[in-house]
Amino acid sequence: MKNRLRVLRAEREWSQAELAVQLDVSRQAVNAIETGKHDPSLPLAFRIARLFDMPIEDVFEYEED
After folding, report:
1. Residues pairing with 3 in the sheet
2. What is the CA 36 to chain-centroid distance, rounded?
């Protein structure tokens, strides 16, 4: 799954640690999602979308294998 998390975070000048605190996850989890090593759970994906005040489809894009 592709995502715009790194871009959205950078636009707000947040560090990975700052974003992690707001999402109640570890900085390592934010890094893994940004780099595509881990897909977030559905509840976390919705929390991310709400935090950025965007529809979930504007943050995450499904990719066929």
Report:
1. 60
2. 10
Residue at 60 is within a domain = no
Rounded CA-CA distance 62/52 in Å is: 19
* pLDDT digit string, tens, across residues 8-62: 999 999 999 999 999 999 999 999 999 999 999 999 999 999 999 999 999 999 8
Please name which of 30, 39, 46, 29 lies closest in space to residue 63, comparing C-alpha atoms.
39
- Please give the radius of gyration of the chain, using alpha carbons only, rounded to the nearest integer: 11
Residue 26: Cβ within 10 Å count:
13
- CB-neighbour burial class of residue 2 (10 A; exposed 0-12, middle 13-18, buried 19+): exposed
Q: What is the DSSP letter of 61?
A: E
Where on the phi/psi map is residue 24: left (φ > 0), alpha (ψ -120 to 50), or beta?
A: left
User: What residue numbers bound the domain in which 32 lies?
Assistant: 2-55
